[in-house]
DNA sequence: TTAGGTACTTACTAAATGGTTAGAAATATT
DNA sequence: AATATTTCTAACCATTTAGTAAGTACCTAA
């Protein structure tokens, strides 16, 4: 028995919680995933749904989410422009997390 | 039908996701909850378990978690000091969230 | 010709967060 | 007498993140 066997699941670089948070942290990230959810949604709708977010932050988050493969983006070559976002297969897998977070808020935070 | 009936669960101040994140966001918060989990743990153990955290951040987070009623603290009047932390009833209710986050990391992030 | 709609971009500023270092307190051990 | 132990505090600085405000592009309708 080594003395450090006590720490079985220490949070180092391999910690699954840390890895998930690398992707999911950020003031707006989970709220955006929550709003996209199972639907296809346009940029403007999302902007109205995520009350208080600035255009800069919304675009920045969306680009980042697309880069991280949680969200996919489809732009139609129209004027005025039309861009649709939806969750990827990987993004859909975050929904159980979001559901738990929403449930916790509903049940415990007034 | 009003035109804004479309936005049924908009993320404004009453959004349960937003409310939960107010409490749970922060670089170290969920990792600390993950490490405390169902056990009673001393400050020093926690420091070793959450690899990379500074003493300042750990104490700051713990104080904040105690204030938010997610963690309870018991200090023994001994020298050298001994302080134990564990999750409150409310804190335990965050574990399903943490479990989902850990599962997501394990299954999807290398 | 002017205004409106949609999806962005850019430059700048402000605020929140995190890190480093040093130290304090009280006792036991060397 | 000096050192170690354990938990925690304070001052200061650096970095990261978020917010503000303005502008761009292109076409349509008034």
Automatic annotation (TrEMBL), chains A, B:
Gene3D superfamilies: Winged helix-like DNA-binding domain superfamily/Winged helix DNA-binding domain
An MF annotation (GO) of this entry: DNA binding
Entry keyword DNA-binding: yes
Keywords: DNA-binding, Transcription, Transcription regulation
PROSITE patterns: HTH_HXLR
InterPro entries from the UniProt entry: HTH_HxlR, WH-like_DNA-bd_sf, WH_DNA-bd_sf
Domain HTH hxlR-type per the UniProt entry, residue ranges: 15-110
Protein name, UniProt field: Transcriptional regulator
Species whose genome carries this gene: Flavobacterium hydrophilum
């Amino acid at each position: 028995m080594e003395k450090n066997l006590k720490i079985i699941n220490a949070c180092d670089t391999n910690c699954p919680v840390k890895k998930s948070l690398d992707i999911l942290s950020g003031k707006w990230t989970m709220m955006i995933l929550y709003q996209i959810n199972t639907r296809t949604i346009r940029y403007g709708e999302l902007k109205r749904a995520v009350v208080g977010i600035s255009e800069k932050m919304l675009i920045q988050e969306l680009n980042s989410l697309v880069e991280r493969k949680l969200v996919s983006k489809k732009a139609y070559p129209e004027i005025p422009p039309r861009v649709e976002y939806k969750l990827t297969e990987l993004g859909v897998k975050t929904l159980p997390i979001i559901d738990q977070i929403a449930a916790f808020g509903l049940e415990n935070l007034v």
